[in-house]
Design a protein that fits this description.
The protein is an all-beta fold. The protein contains no helices and 13 strands.
């Protein structure tokens, strides 16, 4: 399952905000990837564990070459004020979530599409719901880890 926006939790409607971002060189971004802004180039790239500049969920797929131009941009559903459904890894020490994991613990990413239940160092995914049978969690990205707040 690719990550996707479940609902908007701010703004009074359920229409997430979408913005276009220029993509960095040598990137392969797939629809549903969490994406961030590179701190040096200020261009879009896939999110990583402990990302602090997440902008949202890629709404299109793109692969860029060694050089990019203004046409190398894609729409992104902004992470601000939305709930994102993602997979979680069930292979580590912590294989499931419980009610004690909700709301206050921030979990890190394993990669651009998956939450790591074993990693709370530098975490950014606040769990608001989980499905242990499907290995999915509904998350809100912490504002400290968002590029656009």
């Amino acid at each position: 399952m690719i990550p996707f926006v479940v609902k908007r939790i701010q703004g009074g409607n359920n229409n997430p905000d979408v913005e276009y971002f220029n993509v960095a060189a040598s990137q392969t971004i797939v629809t549903g990837d969490l994406v961030q802004i590179n701190a040096s180039t200020r261009l879009l790239e896939v999110a990583t564990a402990a990302s602090t500049t997440i902008v949202g969920v890629a709404n299109e797929t793109i692969t860029t070459g060694a050089t990019v131009t203004a046409v190398d941009n894609i729409p992104v559903v902004l992470a601000r004020g939305v709930v994102i459904r993602m997979n979680f890894t069930g292979a580590g020490t912590k294989k499931t979530f419980a009610s004690t994991d909700l709301y206050s613990t921030l979990f890190d990413l394993s990669n651009k599409t998956t939450v790591n239940p074993d990693d709370v160092t530098g975490g950014m995914a606040q769990i608001i719901a989980y499905d242990n049978a499907k290995l999915t969690v509904d998350v809100v990205i912490a504002s400290a880890n968002q590029y656009l707040k």
